[in-house]
Amino acid sequence: MKDLLGIKRFGFTLAEVLITLGIIGVVAAMTIPNLIANTRSAQYRSGFKKAISTLSQAGRMAQAQYDFDYAGISSTCVDGAKDHPDTVMTMCSILNGTLTGATYYKNASDLKMNKKGVEQPYTFTGDYFYNTDKPQRGIDSMSAYVLADGMIIMFSKQLGSVGGNCTLPPGEPLKDATSGYLRYCIGYIDVNGVNLPNKEVSCTKGSNSLDRNDCIVNNSAKNLTDIYPFRVYDGIVVPATAAARYVLRTAK
What we know:
Blueprint: H1 14-66, H2 91-98, E1 103-105, E2 112-115, E3 118-121, E4 142-146, E5 152-156, E6 186-190, E7 227-233, E8 236-239, H3 242-250
Helix pairs in contact: 1-2
């Protein structure tokens, strides 16, 4: 095509532009969901790793400064946010004495979440959480701390009800059963706070049992979600399910 000056110029026809835009749209439709899933996955993994690190550090600091860690917890939380490790040995006093900028909730269900534009009590779903033969795991039996970044750390109100029970004998493996050792030494981390999906992480393939090592969690909205069960014992904080363990192991 030549312009008024007789210079030959090249350009795209309308059909070529439309075809190009269509191809770009198809590629975007195929790649953007994966990019979003990978970004969310990285956020959840790093958030869980950070929370485990925070709780582990809390146990070490309590041992160094107050001469007791999770194994030394001798009673349930007495006055929540006012518990101090100089006067009482509770889960609340460990967190109060080591965390800054955290807000305590006696009942985790007192937290509020927004679902479809309606404010309602905070809750979440998951097989580990709602196992009917383990009623001590209900959200009404949990207290919570909301950290400065919005992350939620919940733990059983019964933690410390059998003084010094958060300890594991040498050589004893961590098991799924909640009777006996570590029965009430459980908690949950919501890495993105009250925001949805509020669903426990689950295995894409394999078993969620700690006794097995075949669980794989894909970067999918169905499986790699924002709730992670954990347990405390001695000065240690560990994932309480195989799915949570897999996510921690694969976090960078």
